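Risk mitigation, structural track. In case the binding assays with protoporphyrin IX containing FE fail to produce interpretable data, a predicted complex structure has been prepared as a fallback.
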Amino acid sequence: MTTTPPPLSASGCPMLHGAAFAAHPDAVYKQLRTQGAAGWAEIAPRVHALVVTDHRAAVTLLNDTATYSKDARRWDALTQGQVPADSPVLGMMAWRPSVLYTDGDDHARLRWAMDDCIARISPHRLRELTRRSALTLIARVITDGRADLMADFADLVPMLVFADLLGCPPEKTDQMVRACQDLISAGPEAAQGAADFAGLLFELIQFRRTQPGQDLTSWMINHAAQLTDDEALNQLFCVTGAGLIPTAAATAWTLHLLLRDDEYAGNLAAGTLTVRRALSKALWEHAPMANFSVHFARYDTSLRGAHIPGHVPVLISHAAANTDPALPGGRSYDSRAHLAWSAGPHRCPAISQATTIVQTAVETILDQLWDMTLADERATPLLRHGPFHQCPQTMPITFRPKSRARISATALAGGTP
Ligand code: HEM
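Fallback model:
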């Protein structure tokens, strides 16, 4: 916890980006709370948004579709050219024809396709795919005695899983993983990564039109909602954009809790229940999608005392709402009242799939590297820069080096999908 408050932007707003936010996000949420249920923040250089930090206000807004829209074409500052064209927030906030940016009947149609496709993922296949991906990654570091849980494991498991779920041919997987790595980098290579990834999805759609398989791409393009190619591409882009970093972050936070917190560390042998409870606590305390669920009021309005002008972005701080001091104390982490999955019609459609990936990845690495310890004892690791995700930059671990042979034996014994 810092004693000096984080610096304000030139416009006098708390900054939801930059090094000070990455080091002390809670101090910035505290600054925001002084403005009421929603406060102005700078989310990138020269880009401002209202951010809701009050749990009750967040739930009200997320369910009030008559007042609030998800359609980013309502963003006045953007349509009037006041947002820098190369702003790093545009990759996630600019309008696309997908579930994330639509309302009412348009959203219902796209969400119908999304829900049906996600529901077709077999839980057994997903578990096996995640286990096999996790083992492949552990095999790369197991003889070293050290690794970075982020770069070597948590970031890559969902990428390998998604490449397979999307029906990416094996010879293209490396290319897709590289594009995804750039896409989520929040650095200068992000825009190129997004373009490369969209190009790969375009090729994949053409390929699966002639050779359909049991994968998200084939299901999306053949769904009864009859999506155009552009809609299908953006829906698949949305699945990946919405799914990758939060799943990586949830995996990392769960492992961080299990390795650091005495309440869990002594109970690791208790297995699945412990991992599930740790995930639940991680979702309360470190909401992976920290500030998102972007909405635009259709007209000037108010929200629990806060003035909300129409046509400006209003973000929900899932992170700040979950840690709202007004929430009753002593709640159980098993409670589902947290907002890590959001709420209302745009609530995450893949909760059980995300849980399966995180749980399987965590159990697999704990099985293989049972003696791993965190190399950095800090209570809260430094976060990646940017307003949207709450995700550690690195998480170095050490363990006793082991033979790679033990992994191939395990992988073969489990079979592969
Ligand atoms: C722990 C991991 C995850 C967390 C914390 C998470 C969280 C969220 C949140 C907060 C939203 C609301 C976004 C908004 O309204 O702007 C959302 C939406 C969404 N998520 Fe997840 N998510 C996770 C994993 C996944 C995965 C693995 C997938 C895909 C398989 C996925 C697919 C989606 C989609 C498609 C939406 C948009 C839904 C809509 O707008 O109707 N998510 N997620």
